[in-house]
Backbone:
């Protein structure tokens, strides 16, 4: 099973909406009750589209990423207001209180699940819960998502006249029909305006790649498990910024992880017995750099055990890397030829792993800086080099007599330099947001409702 | 032959007492030597040695977390850089010799009875980490 993404849910919702439209155009209602059920589901859908528009705009405004001045966002907000005027302000919408039967009710349910998925990325006060929450700060991405919602909204609004005719054919009074379908021409033109602001693109936006936070690790294949554990490690390494665990053992785990990911990626790019290609050579150099970071970190005292989950996930990833991308390529002797199709998915997973590791490395470097800034890094005086103590008589004395001392500035500078050498900011780090699944989604589980 | 590592390693194995301090010293020397070796050999071997070093550092820290004074009081002895003339396989054997000695010290230190106190839990955790490291250091 592939993890669900926001784009999957929106696609699925669009499918339900289209099915409802085809149904309305294909045949009339047999009874008045059937007509009322369909109209109620239609209202529920419009209410869900309104709520969904705010699920995209709301966090951006809450975090200050949007000032509300963007014309597309203003039009989308006006569209949402127009929908709310038509469907009423009752919350939860009455259609949410009955099990979904009509395709539009299913569409509304999926849209509300998408709201839940997006809502997980921020606290109610607008604090990010994931490194990917910064997708909201990307205006292009927000515009693309608002345009996608507007296209679904536009399709739904286009069927209003057909519905009115079908309601009349089912002998609903014009008065009742007008209650359900008050005339949504204004909302329709706003939806068209928003949809036109960003044409559909084959390139998924950052928001569209967001997945459900906290999904369990898939263990059906080693490749899935590797992908999911790395995703979780990335999230936890990011979380260390806000919730530091003060353990250099955790930083050492992350440096070892980076060493392994780069080494296995290099091995996978190299045919056994052959010289590494240029890309593989660069990866190997990074692996070496991370080895040096891990070596350097071993000299600092760790005040406590490593972060338990990071430690466990690191261990598991190291085992999985051995399984999915053995280091055969780095061997001087030739080995078995890998299957091409297997190779492509492993290569994709390793590319994502390297990119995720680059981000993890950046965050680990920041954690090291923070520990250093708060004088939380300590070393054994006897293990300091002559150069590290030469300018400080107290340190020089401690080197002779022993004892635990605050890590001297030169020692910290050397480790900082090792971090910088291992992880210079790269285009991959700046551009990659490894939340997209490796395979296209084939099924979706709709599990929740948002109010 | 790994002459420069062999000699100090022999001294450590022979003289490190079967105490927490002695065990800590052996683990410190083994962890640093393994990391040094990992940086010296080709990555195909170096990666496993890096992971073994991770285990050895963890084993040492398991002791420090229950007896923080160890890091201050126990002698921190390093085998130093691996001289160019040293044979890598022999150097790996030297590291394994230190790991085995540390395992022996743990066996001596751990009581034959109840293993539920923090001290014993630390020794058990160190034992687990060392056995994991040995899967690499004991390779021919």
Residues:
């Amino acid at each position: 099973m592939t993890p669900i993404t926001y784009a999957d849910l929106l696609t699925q919702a669009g499918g339900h909406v289209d099915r409802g439209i085809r149904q309305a155009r294909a045949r009339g209602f047999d009874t008045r009750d059937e007509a009322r059920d369909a109209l109620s589901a239609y209202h529920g859908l419009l209410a869900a589209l309104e709520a969904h528009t705010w699920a995209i705009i709301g966090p951006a405004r809450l975090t200050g990423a949007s000032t509300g001045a963007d014309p597309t966002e203003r039009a989308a907000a006006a569209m949402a207001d127009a929908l709310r005027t038509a469907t009423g302000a009752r919350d939860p919408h009455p259609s949410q209180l009955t099990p979904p039967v009509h395709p539009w009710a299913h569409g509304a349910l999926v849209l509300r699940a998408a709201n839940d998925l997006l809502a997980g990325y921020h606290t109610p006060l607008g604090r990010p819960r994931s490194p990917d929450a910064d997708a909201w700060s990307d205006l292009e991405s927000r515009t693309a998502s608002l345009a996608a919602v507007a296209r679904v909204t536009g399709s739904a609004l286009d069927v209003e006249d057909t519905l009115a005719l079908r309601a009349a054919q089912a002998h609903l009074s014009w008065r009742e029909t007008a209650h359900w379908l008050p005339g949504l021409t204004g909302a329709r033109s706003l939806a068209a305006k928003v949809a036109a602001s960003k044409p559909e693109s084959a390139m998924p936006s950052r928001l569209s790649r967001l997945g459900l936070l906290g999904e369990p690790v898939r263990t059906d294949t080693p490749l899935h498990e590797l992908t999911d554990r790395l995703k979780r490690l990335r999230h936890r390494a990011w979380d260390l910024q806000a919730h530091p665990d003060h353990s250099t053992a955790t930083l050492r785990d992350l440096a070892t992880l980076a060493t392994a990911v780069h080494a296995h990626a290099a091995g996978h790019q190299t045919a056994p017995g052959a010289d590494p290609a240029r890309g593989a050579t660069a990866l190997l150099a990074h692996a070496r750099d991370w080895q040096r970071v891990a070596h350097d970190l071993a000299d600092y005292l760790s005040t406590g055990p490593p972060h338990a989950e990071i430690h466990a996930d690191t261990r598991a990833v190291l085992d999985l890397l051995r399984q999915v991308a053995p280091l055969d390529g780095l061997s001087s002797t030739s080995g078995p030829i890998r299957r091409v199709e297997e190779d492509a998915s492993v290569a994709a997973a390793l590319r994502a792993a390297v990119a995720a590791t680059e981000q993890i490395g950046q965050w680990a470097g920041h954690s090291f800086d923070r520990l250093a800034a708060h004088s939380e890094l300590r070393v054994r005086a006897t293990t300091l080099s002559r150069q590290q103590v030469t300018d400080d008589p107290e340190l020089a004395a401690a080197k002779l007599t022993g004892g635990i001392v605050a890590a001297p500035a030169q020692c910290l500078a050397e480790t900082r330099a090792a971090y910088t050498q291992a992880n210079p900011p790269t285009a991959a780090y700046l551009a990659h947001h490894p939340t997209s699944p490796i395979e296209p989604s084939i099924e979706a589980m709709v599990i929740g409702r948002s109010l | 032959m790994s002459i420069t590592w062999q000699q100090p390693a022999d001294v450590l194995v022979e003289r490190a007492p079967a105490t927490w301090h002695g065990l800590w010293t052996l683990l410190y020397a083994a962890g640093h030597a393994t990391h040094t070796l990992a940086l010296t050999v080709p990555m195909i071997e170096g990666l496993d040695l890096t992971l073994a070093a991770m285990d050895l550092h963890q084993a040492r820290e398991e002791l420090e977390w229950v007896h923080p004074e160890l890091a201050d009081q126990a002698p921190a002895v390093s085998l130093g850089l691996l001289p160019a003339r040293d044979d890598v396989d022999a150097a790996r054997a030297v590291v394994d010799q230190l790991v085995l000695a540390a395992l022996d010290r743990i066996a001596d230190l751990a009581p034959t009875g109840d293993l539920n106190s923090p001290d014993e839990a630390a020794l058990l955790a160190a034992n687990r980490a060392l056995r994991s490291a040995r899967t690499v250091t004991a390779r021919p």
Remarks:
- Chain B touches chain A at residues 31-32, 35-36, 38-39, 42-44, 46-47, 50-51, 53-54, 57-58, 61, 64-65, 71-73, 75-76, 78 (CB under 8 Å).
- The first helix of chain B runs from residue 3 to 15.
- Chain B has six helices and no strands.
